[in-house]
Amino acid sequence: MSDIEHLIEDALKPVGAAPPPPSPDLFARVLDSVHDDQARRRRLRRDVAAWVAGVAAATTLVLVLTPRSNGELHMPWWILELATNLALVGIAVWLGPFIKRFGRAYAADVFHDNPLTGKSYIVLTDVVYYLIFAAYIMFTVRFAPQVDWGNDITEVVTAEQLTYEVARIGGILLIIGVLHGLNIVLMPVLGRLFSLNRRVDRHGERIGDRP
Asked: Where are the strands (E) in the chain, listed by range?
């Protein structure tokens, strides 16, 4: 310990009192903290590597599959459509575990009286999350150029198609954001209701056990 730590310890402990014994699980808690930090760093490196690989793959796909005309790139409409679908899938795969990672502690606090219900709730919300993403992609995917894109003849990317594809990504982020916000607000209410039901059941069991 440093001199400052000794001075603080001497100032806070009662006069004549023996120094407190060291915590028996201090070393285990330090090891757990180190392991958690290492796991977090590995997860961060994997996420960064996945995003870099995705951007590199998308750039390579555009440069390889896009024909050149007069020194300019003219991207076929289906390349942008495919890239948007891959981006939506990538967002779903990345955003789901990200929300779940920070939602476990919140669910555990809300469902502290019945943790099994909290775990089941997290699993069910994961199912709903991926169903929403899958349904959104299926509803918005296009297999041919649209008339309002203005490329039904040239079949190259136009500003209208780019606006549509950006709106697809923004739309799913908005939907997930709204639903996630509602989930944050409603989860404490559900946790309170489950706790009240559990207490009512226990009270009923006590009354039934009375002679």
From this structure: 68-69, 72-73
Give CA 154 to chain center in angstroms. Answer: 39
Contact 66, 76 (CB under 8 A): yes
122 backbone dihedrals φ, ψ, rounded to 5°: -65, -40
Which tens digit of pLDDT belongs to each residue from 106-160? 777 777 777 777 778 888 888 888 899 999 999 999 998 888 888 877 888 888 9
Whole-angstrom Cα distance, residue 173 to residue 184? 16
Strand 72-73 to 68-69 pairing: antiparallel
Residues 85, 148: Cα–Cα separation, whole Å: 20
pTM of the entire predicted model? 0.66
Contacts of 148 (CB under 8 A, 6+ apart): 160
Q: Which helix (H) or strand (E) holds 12?
A: helix 3-12
